[in-house]
């Protein structure tokens, strides 16, 4: 017996090889690949284009992720560009922009030195045109400190314009009120304003402008002038409306609350957060509860204030009455963004990006060609000759139900056991299912089976297709208003082109 066993296995292999050679000669074949993206066993239903069965129940689920990615040198600032649904991160040490999907996949890395006569740019701040109704929606502006330039890129990353600025631009904002970019130049006594045609203008009257904010209800721009130790409020055209001193201006992080008509300004030097009236520039409130606030963001949707404390590497969440309602430790990360569907943290020192979020993910997917085949089989049924099933992993598909629904709504169910269909190639999870021979795939027949967690199953279906128009009788009744490529009665071909068929022919 031990001598005959190897020959028995080889005989099975040879027989299966001959079988497939003949099968491929006599039949057509399609491939259907089903993937379970969840950690649950899920029921899947294929075919049955005229039934009310979906491929699976609960087509999508929330997928939570937390990734830390290595990126280009010194990631320093980030935006979420709604025009492309991607994050754009500038890397100061690499003169590059990393494009990241909301799911935490690096989509592209763009060299900012391309098409430029300046080799070292030093990108430091980024903003974008966030007006969906504007022709330049999605255009990105990058302040390049060492090149004295603003790079204008479209949302795909292609360079559109290079705008010269003052010396060492260190901040850039997009004013949604008038669709213009404003740039603070730390070694020039003016701001650079860039209009909608990307022409630049000087707004004079400053010493060392460092940080910018804007009032999106009237376009006023708040300017932190470290040289004059003052905060200036200017109109959208650059005219001085008001100013305030008494605030430590060495380094501020500014945001605007339109509902309360207030600017929030966090001072890194004095450990103070100011609530500034947007009209009078009076200080309505001063908060001293956070040490070294390096970044402040006001969330208009949640009405929460987020402040990054560089002193203890924590991200504080504050209510509008400045009560700390949350604190998260983020060691080594020095910038963050809550824009978009995910949360982003940047580590300039470690050249890392951490991204957290949830996104809707399909529970079960099928290859795109399946839907075209299903529609075809709905009108031109397929007679199955053989099915080969290949599954990933070690878990097997044990059974498959064939459910046929009659025109009266009655369902007939047939269960095919796959437990005895294991291929002689037993080192793979392959089943050769001969019990499908003679079964139809049409609009009324559905295949249902249970797929294991995170498993992918591929069906190779060998079949002969029944083309229904070939079954029409030669003397079938004329159908008006219906165009068909085949199935025209042969007798019609004997009539002149512009004359109807003789009455006896229909």
Automatic annotation (TrEMBL):
InterPro entries registered for this protein in UniProt: WD40/YVTN_repeat-like_dom_sf
Gene3D superfamilies per the UniProt record, alphabetical: YVTN repeat-like/Quinoprotein amine dehydrogenase
Protein name stated in the entry: YncE family protein
Species this chain originates from: Winogradskyella bathintestinalis
